[in-house]
Amino acid sequence: MQQLDMGLAQESKEKIADTASSAESKLIEFRTGRLIVGNCVDVMRSWKDDLIQLTVTSPPYDSLRDYKGYEFPFEEIAQELYRVTAKGGIVVWVVGDRINGGRSLTSFRQAIYFQELGFSAHDVMIYQKKNTPFTRSNAYTNAYEMMFVLSKGKPTTFNPLKVPTQRHGFEMLTHNKLPDGINKKKLGELKKEKTRTNIWSYAVGLGGTTSDRIAFQHPAVFPEKLAEDHVLSWSNPGDIVFDPMCGSGTTGKMALLRDREFVGIDISPEYIEIARQRLTQSGLSVEIMNA
User: Hey, where are the domains in the chain?
Assistant: First the structure.
């Protein structure tokens, strides 16, 4: 683990520097995924401070899934995530709540704890599931999870994802509405594109979440496009992307395909093997390590 500690930051710097003089096709050859079998708290404790630019993860919550009996020490994980996150770095924490008997509000409690550690609640985003099958007899169908975007200080990277506008060009636009309620207009330009909202919708299940059948050997898989969109938004090529509970390897796959470094940890050797096979089948280079 000392080799990983000393090597991650230095390798990343060297490879980022290499981007200035190398073709993009050559750069992709350098991007390597590291999958570590171990307790993520113990592994992170062996790392330097301020190492990781971006974490994208969806942790267990409220015992809704059976993760082979492994425990989830949330507070210890949160503390280490704060320490190893680089200044200006981001943690994307995708989490929901138990609903039976009323909402547990676990997601909000966790977000508040992150804030108490020193993270800024940079954004509270919604992951909307387009085709959720779960209905409720006495309430509306639950179709979302929270995506807390937590920053360690002011974010150093934001690459906004855009969507086309319905109309564009110059027209008279309302501005500077005063207490008298009278709309005042002036000539302004509507752009061809605008930044997406913070509600992101994805289809789930085979073909929506992913087409990799092996991924569904894990009990909880989030959409590849969700991971990719966050990777593109909050990191740049050559940055280290991390998932401390990497499960089936979704974050790793999208990070590597987008020319980032990736480090994933999972306490389950079975899940690490699923991730290894999945990444390898996608033609990605993967190194397996034991803590």
Answer: 2-160+197-290, 162-195
